[in-house]
UniProtKB/TrEMBL annotation:
Keywords: Glycosyltransferase, Transferase. Its EC number is 2.4.-.-. It comes from Blastococcus carthaginiensis. It comes from the Bacteria. This is Glycosyltransferase. Residues 196-338 form the Spore protein YkvP/CgeB glycosyl transferase-like domain. One of its GO terms (molecular function) is glycosyltransferase activity.
Length: 357
């Protein structure tokens, strides 16, 4: 089977949903040939009487399956139809519920107001198969059995790096990875809990953001400005840094429609790097079952204070969570699921052609 995977140009999703799955499938020697491309080679013609050009041909490069990551334009929808007319199966890969991007998110204007979310849904509904990171996304994009979940996973080379719990720091670093512009309501889920924990352990703890802190101090009403380590665009170096600078990771999420569909990835990254995690009770974090749950500010304060003051507890829980990742959540574990999904897309396309004959 030959697969052509088109990535969307977003660093994290490209890594976890295209590049690393492709690497894992190749290394597993599952009889699949994979080519990754940034875009598709297309032919476009002007409509009679004017208007925007339309896609009239797409080169699948000999692939049996073309995987489109986050397609959300009219041209991508046209590509799907052209490829299917050629007998090529099309898989749409979705890792976010675009229609629920919250107001205040940096991408809200382009995704919601400019109609990209609506086009993404149409692309998913016309694909031969949709792959997603969560069951909730399958329900949104492929509610009639046209989708499968292939969960996010971690490369073994990352999970086997020296874990954070091997350190014995005098000052414990509580960390959050992300950009406030992309998570405008999430940090606030901790309420005063983070500051209470920092007050309870003054001199023994600090708060650090790996990414872009923007106005995090005001959102969290912190008495001191958090330390910022600027975002690292290389995912291998970023995940390595998580285990090098965090002792405790926080994963707060506002429980809304967008976040209910989100993957367990942040919690998984913390666990893989041996970082003790305190996290919100989101559906996917609960399904993963790693880290310590916190909901109200008092829960965050108690969980963080305990973890800062009790290194043995922190070490035991983090080591246990990392073992779960090594046993169940590596890219080598999900490689067969990707191949099965692509084969299902081929079968679906063949059935569609027979029905149309």
């Amino acid at each position: 089977m030959k697969i052509l995977m088109m990535n969307a140009g977003h660093i994290g999703p490209d890594y976890y949903r295209v590049t690393e799955p492709a690497r894992a499938v190749r290394e597993a020697d599952l009889g699949v040939e994979i080519t990754i491309t940034r875009g598709l080679t297309t032919t476009m013609h002007n409509r009679p009487g004017g208007g925007d050009p339309v896609v009239t041909d797409v080169d699948p490069r000999g692939a049996d399956v073309v995987v489109l990551q986050l397609p959300k334009t009219v041209e991508m929808l046209q590509c799907i139809r052209v490829l299917q007319a050629k007998g090529v199966a099309v898989v749409v890969e979705m890792d976010d519920l675009l229609s629920a991007v919250p107001f205040g998110n940096a991408a809200y204007n382009s995704i919601i107001r400019k109609g990209m979310a609506r086009l993404a849904l149409q692309c998913a509904r016309e694909a031969d198969l949709v792959t997603t990171t969560t069951p909730a996304l399958v329900e949104e994009y492929a509610p009639r059995g046209g989708g499968v979940v292939v969960p996010n996973a971690i490369p073994r080379r990352i999970a086997e790096l020296p874990p954070a719990y091997e350190r014995a720091p005098d000052v414990v670093t509580v960390g959050w990875s992300g950009t406030v512009a992309g998570h405008p309501y999430d940090l606030q889920e901790m309420g005063s809990g983070l500051q209470q924990a920092l007050d309870n352990t003054r001199g023994r703890s600090r708060f650090l953001i790996l990414g872009q802190k923007w106005d995090a101090r005001e959102r969290l009403r912190l008495t001191e400005e958090p330390t910022e380590l600027r975002w690292i665009p290389d995912v291998d170096r970023y995940t390595a840094a998580v285990g090098e600078v965090f002792d405790i990771g926080v994963a707060p999420l506002r429980i809304d429609r967008f976040n209910t569909c989100k993957s367990w990835l942040k919690n998984l990254e913390y666990a893989a790097r041996g970082v003790y995690c305190v996290r919100s009770p989101s559906a996917e974090y609960e399904r993963l079952g790693l880290g310590r749950r916190a909901k109200a500010p008092k829960d965050w304060a108690k969980a963080l204070t305990t973890a800062i003051l009790d290194p043995d507890l922190r070490r035991e829980q983090a080591a246990r969570d990392r073992t779960v990742v090594l046993d169940r959540h590596l890219t080598e574990h999900t490689a067969p699921h990707w191949v099965a999904a692509w084969q299902q897309a081929v079968d679906n396309r063949a059935r569609s052609r027979r029905k149309g004959a």
